[in-house]
Amino acid sequence: MIRLLAIALLCSAASPAIAQAVEPSAQPDVVVTGRGLDDRVGDSALDVVTIDRDRITDNASGRLESILRDAAGLQQFRRSDSTSANASSQGISLRGIGGNASSRALLILDGVPQADPFGGWVPFPAYAPERLGRIRVTRGGGSGYFGPGALAGTVEMDSATPDQLSPLAMGVAYGSRNSLEADGSAALVRDGGFATISGSYARGDGFTPTVAESRGPVDRPAPYEQASGAFRGVIGIAPATELQANVSAFTDTRDRGTAFTANTSKGADASLRLVGHGAWNWSALAYLQTRAFASNFASINATRTAATETLDQYNTPATGIGARLEVAPPIGEGLSLRLGADVRAVSGRTQELFSYVAAAPTRQRYAGGETRNAGLFADGSARLGRVTLDLGGRIDWWRIADGYLSEHVLATGASLNNLRFPNRDGSEATGRVGIAWRPIDAITVRAAAYRGWRLPTLNELYRPFRVGADATAANAALNPEKLTGYEGGLTITPTATTSIAVTVFHNRLDDAIANVTAGTGPGNFPGVGFVAAGGVYRIRQNLDAITSTGVELDASWRIGPFSARASWQHVDPRVVASGAAARLDGLRPAQTPLDQVSGTLGWRAGAASLAATLRYVARQFDDDQNTRSLRPATTMDAVATVPLNRAWLIEARAENAFDARVEAGISGNNIVERATPRTLWLGVRYRMR
After folding, report:
1. 43-97 pLDDT, tens per residue?
2. Three-point CA angle 519, 521, 527, nearest 5°
3. pTM for this structure?
4. Among 87, 277, 351, 422, which is most exposed with the fewest C-beta within 10 angstroms?
5. For every residue of 106-172, which 3-state class applies, written as one string?
6. DSSP character for 675?
C-alpha cells in the first residue's frame, strides 16, 4: 500500500502541471485520442470479438477474467477467479490447446505485454474495468505485430478515451461474506490532452474452497484483499503527435482456505509511448515492469485434521523491460503496411524454504535466470474491391541465459545442489496470411493460416511448485512451443446492429509444455523432495503435440434499448505423445472442456440498465491422465442499475445467482475445490456529468 500511496501523491502533484500544459489556448490544433495506431484493414479476414465499454463496466463480478469469458474459448487454467485461485494458476489460453500457469494467448494493455515476467500468469486484480475503454479478442496465432507469445490469439486492452471518461467517478458496494469493493477516478480533459488518476480496493472474508463433503477441521474460508492504482497522462506535443505516459501499481493477497496457503503478488508498471498520426503513422514505446510473488504450500493429512507447511516461496522477484518501434508509411488508398521491431528482456528468481521437519524448514532453494527476445516484423493489408488480403510475418532471435539452481542445508550451509544450466539461443520465423471476400455487403467469407511460438517462462524452466499434496518439478531443458493452424469462417451482418459469425479451425501445438505424471507418493522425487501419500509427482515436459479442432459461433444484436450477445465454442483437443509420456497419447489436455457457452440479454435506457448472463462450461479433466473429472457447470449472473438523478445510481449485482457448484480442481486424494458460490452485491455509484 505504501507504493500505491506514493503513486497517488505523485499523481495529485502532477495534475495541475498537466492541466496548465494542455489549456486550449496553448495548443488549439492538437487532437489526442490516447490510443495507438488505427485498427488494421486486414482485421476483417480474422476472427475478432470486441467487448465495448458498456459491457466492460456492467459486469456482475467487476473482474476482468469474468468479462473476458464473453469470448467463448478464452479461459484460465482453472475455473476459479482472482478472489480464491492461486495467482500462479491464472494463465489464459484460447481454442482448447490446454495450458498451465503460463498464458498461451498474448494479453496487452496500450501496447504493453501484461503477463507476469517470471511466470506468464495474469495479475487480474491489477485491472479495474472502469479504466478500460475497449477489449478486442483476436482468436488464432501468428499476430506478429504485437510481439511473440500469441500462440492461440491476442487480447488487446485499450484504456478509456476522453469521450468515455467522467470528470469524477466513484463507487462503493457491499457484498456477501462481508465483501467490500470501492473504486474512484478523476479525469481532466482538454483539447490538447487529458490526465486520469484512479484507484480501486476490494476485500472479503471469502468462502471455503473445499466442498462440504471433502472438508475437515483444517478447512476454513479464504479471505482476500486487493488494491490497485493508476495514473495516465496524454498530451499533444505537435499537431499530429501525442505523448502517452502510464504508471500503475497493484497489491494482491489471497488465502487458499487452510493454514500455510497464503499468496501475495505485488507489481508496478511504467510506460511511455509516442504516437504520430500524420502522413506517416508511427509509434515508439518503452516500458518497465516489476513483480514480486510469495506463496506458502501445505500438506494436509488424510483425515484433514492437520495442515503441515511444506514450502515457503517467500519471494519471487521479476523484472520485464522492453521497447517497440512501429512505422506505417502512406502507400495508397485501401492499403496499409506496418514495419517495426521490438525487444523484451525478463529476469527473475524464486527463493524458497523447504523440506520441513518438526514444522521448521531445513533447506533453502534459489533458482532463476533470464530470457531475451528481439524481433523484426512486417504486416500488410490491401482492400481490393470486395476482397481484402492480409499478410504478416516476423523473425525472432531468442536467448535463455544464466539459469541456475542452488540448494543448501540451513543449519550448516552445506551445498546440496549448485547447478548452472547451459545458455541456449535460437531463432523462430512466424506469420499469418488471411483473405476476406464480400460477395454482397451483408456477407463476408474469410480464411486464414498462421504460425506462432512461445518461449518457456522462467517459472517453467526453473521453479518447482506444489498444489496440496501434489508436486511438480521444473525442467531447464524445455524447448519453445510452436503452433500452426488454419481457419475458415463466415460473418453475416444483415443490419448495422446485428452480426453472426461462425469459424471452423484446426491447430497443432508442437513441443507443448505440460505437467506429466511421473510417480505417486509417498517418496522423495527429483526437483521437489518428499511427496506425501496420496500425492502425485509430475515434471514439466515437451509433449510431441496437442491438436485442437473446433467451431466458434459469435452473435450480437441490438434494437433500441434491447441487446443480446452470445458466444459458443466446441473443440476436441487431443494429446500426441510418445516416449515417457506415451500413456497420454489420445487423451485430452488437462482443464480443457469440449464446450463453452456465454449468452447475455440486456436493456439500457440512459443510466438505467438490466443484464443477465448465462454461462455453461462442459465437463473437463483436472489431470493429464484424464482420471479426475470436473463436473459441467451452468451459472447465471445479473446486474441492474437504477439512476437516482443525473449523477447518482444504485447498483445491484448477483454472481452465480443460483449457487451452482463450479468445480475448479481435484487434489491427489480426491479433495474437490470449488469456484465462487453465489455472491450478492448492493452499491451506489456516482458519475459527474
Report:
1. 888 899 999 998 898 888 889 999 999 999 898 888 999 999 988 889 999 999 9
2. 65
3. 0.90
4. 422
5. EEEECCEECCCCCCCCCCHHHCCHHHEEEEEEEECCCCHHHCCCCCCEEEEEEECCHHHCCCEEEEE
6. -
